[in-house]
Amino acid sequence: MALIQCPECGKSISEKALTCPGCGNPMNVQTPEVRTAPGSVKAPGSFFSLFFRSIYQPRATIRLILDSGGKFWIWRIIWIGSFLYIFSTTESHLNSFAKYSFLKSVLWDPPIMAVLSYLFAWLGAYFYLFLGRAIGGKGTARELFTAIIWSNPVNQVNSFFLLLASIPVWAGYLGTDPVLLPLTPSDFDPKTILQFVLHGAAYAFFLWAWAVETIMLSEVHRFSVRKGLVLVLGYFAISFVLVTLIFGTSPRTFLSDTFRF
Which of 189, 179, 164, 155 lies closest to 102 in space, CA to CA? Predict the structure, then answer.
């Protein structure tokens, strides 16, 4: 057994001693290195708690997620949004079901919608990155992508209310008295007080979704909500110009598709 000297009192002690028997000085005390295995980062809460918290505490939620260093439930949010979007009826959705069969559309449309949502989220992240850096932002593309995805739950609540309001339309489509095709916008006008209420709730959450995205983006870039609003409006303006120029979509059609109810 080798002997070493205590740096405090100079007494010879065993190299395996934890403390010096003469003066009590700690010896050979090492803090073990803690390594986190890849992919073992724990989420800062359950999926549902973060899902609903992102609606009423967007700034705190996105900061908690980013500080935890994980990409939590990205695809789960995307898949939920894809299915809700498909089943919140529009003229194009029901016409697609009639043309390709209900089952084929259900199996085919959501995966396409999910992939497109993922790609457009990254596209939006890089747009918000470059524009945000131009006005003093400090966020990264990965952080902005996470913020875009986690701003979706409030929009999915909007789609859920639209789905509830669409039940009479689905009943007509799936029942013995199918909806006549092609459909017209009048087929989706609210017919009852309940549908008016559901559409009103959906519209309220739709507007709040814009606010949530603005708040989360401003938190990621660590600047004011006013600058976050510049980001969102800038993205909307550039999207408006590109869609109308590249695809020849009229401004009225673009706006009606964006604010569809």
Answer: 179
pLDDT-derived band at 261, boundaries 50, 70, 90? very low
Report phi then psi at 110, rounded to 5. Answer: -60, -45
For residues 97 and 105, the answer to whether their CB atoms sit within 8 Å is yes
- What is the spatial distance between Cα 240 and Cα 197, in angstroms, rounded to a whole number? 30
pTM: 0.71
Residue 5 dihedral angles phi and psi, to the nearest 5°:
-95, 140
Q: Is 255 helix (H, G, I), strand (E, B) or coil?
A: helix
Taking only Cα atoms into account, the Rg of the chain, rounded to an integer number of angstroms, comes to 27
| Residue 185 per-residue DSSP state | G
Residues in the chain: 261
pLDDT in tens, 89-122: 555 555 555 555 666 666 777 888 899 999 999 9
CA atoms lying within 13 Å on the CB side of residue 194: 6
